[in-house]
# Entry
Amino acid sequence: MSDFFLELFSEEIPVSLQKDLRNYLLREIKRIFDDRSIKSKKNFSLSTPNRLIIVFQGLDKEVKIRSKEIKGPSITSQPQALEGFIKSQNINKKDIYKKKIDKGEFYFFKTKEKKLKTFDLIRIKLPETIKNFKWKKSMKWGTFDLNWGRPLKSILCVFDKKTVIFRLNHLQSSNFTYIDKDFEEKKRSFIDFNSYKKFFETNEIILDQDKRKNKIKREIDKILVKKNLKTNNNDNLLEEITNLVDQPVILECLFDKKFLAIPKEILILTMQSHQKYIPLFNKKDEIVNEFIVVSNKKDKNGLIKIGNERVVEARLNDAEFFWNKDKSQNLVKKVSGLKSMNFFKGLGTYFDKVQRMRKLGAVISDELLISKDKVELSASICKTDLISESVGEFPELQGIMGSHLSHAQGFDKDIVDAIKEQYLPIGLDSAVPKKPYSIALSLADRIDTLTGFFGINEKPSSSKDPYALRRVALGIIRIIIENKKNIKINDLISYSSNIYSKQSFNLTNDKLIKEISYFLKDRFRYYLKEKDIRHDIIDSSTNTLHLNEISTVFQKAKSLNKIINKSIGEDIVLSYKRASNIINSEVKDPHKYFTNTTDPGIFKNDYEKNLYNKTNDLKKHFSIISKTHNFDETLVLLSTAKNDIFSFLDNVKVNDESEIIKKNRLELINFFCKTYENFIDFQLIKDINE
# Structure
């Protein structure tokens, strides 16, 4: 048993690429060994900003490759097939033999048993494996042909304490590495991973990314306990910092309290995204003027701390200047400035867009029973932060800065919140706007965008969606469903198209409304799938879907999905299926045959009367269902009809000698089925036998 140890030393690899490279090399090298039944006791990958390390411990030195039969072409094949087989296996004709199997007689070749040395396998396979890694972003340097994330300086490769020598473009592997990334004249050779690890531990370099992360977290937690503060638990930031350092040292830093008057989102963004610092908060979630820096070396003279504090102060001085300047400019007066900012070619400027949003928002306000004036005002000023100095410096804060500016200028809280939440939701799992004015503004924005882009035929293709229109459509679906609102989407799309026309924009897509409706239905199907709704329920929910009732349809699908595999669900589906099967077998053209009139005056027995009365009760129930109805109760009620329909079908001869009686009984069964279909199209729901 021996150890295999690989180190790739390079310039600092970006954080986003380190994990991909680690995982790829470990997986592919393990596959090389596994394919040849070479076993190891332990394997793992490590990385620092400059080093990528792969280790296999307790690895077999060699394995026996057993002989095996390789089947060739049939003996009836053309001679060329046999020649090709001989050539592909690199054997002589004398090495092949004939053998009968179930499928006939074939040529066979038997390989010889041989020993495979792990050392030779690594030497042959490793260069190709390293070179085959597909970087998201790579570079060349100097006159070399090698593509790598950053310039690759050395390859240390050792197996069984012996150097595995191979070439990778201009580099040759060896048993040495650079021990100081800043001074490349400092080199050291290693014969195994243990001595390598011990050396770097002595120099306080932590090779293991998980140990680095835990150390950083422990040290930060000590500070938080001591100061009675907390972080915003940004795991992505912690992961990023972990992969930026290999000698983590925690520094406590301060900035001037005057900067706390700036919106906290600017402070957080400045520290987290721009500088990779960790902002701190008190127990009330208020940001404080303290932050944490994770340095990559000890700050013996305090100069690193001072330097970082100066960097933050400089950036916050700029932010404060931008904020104060923006705050002093009236948002309503700034609306005209949107005329200089294009929205999209063929769809006008952002000034044109907000005018369209105002009109759409006004219509939506009528449906939500909220103030039209507030919606129109929020739509008018919602994009003005795009031309502010603050958003110019911090583009990530679109909407958020608009809400801060509108609050600072005394706008109503409903308007402030609507501007802040106008871009929600931003994905499948993000929050959706819940307040009526926020809903109105967000829907107006999305419907205008969807109508415009479809109108000029900038639609998503099967593989591409450059303008994120699927996300826009999914946002509309989520806002409606998760607020349990039924909005007249078709009318809004039609109205939006008219507004574009009145602004003299030429929407060339004459199938605009139809295509958007289909697109939204497709996104609705996707949403149902993501909510783990059963496929047949999805099909039945969307078969005759009306977009104006999308929230109700979702609630029905969700309720049915909960009970479909329970006894109550089986009762409902079987009741419908037994009834509909009678119609399918007896009536060729239901549309022509049925008049939707059942005459209780010619009923012959109580089974008919009971089924008729039960169906009438169900019909009355559906006629009084409200938008906020609990559909679980409806399903319970539907399940109670099982006894009536089963008793009818078990005891009544539908195919009566009298055509009048027969038709009346078929009308009764059809009445029952149509009443069930008020809930969902049960024809597409599978029963337990399908």
Q: What stands out?
A: Residues 2-63+116-202 form a domain with the Alpha-Beta Plaits fold (CATH 3.30.70). The two ends are 56 Å apart (CA to CA). The chain has a mean pLDDT of 92. The first helix runs from residue 15 to 34.
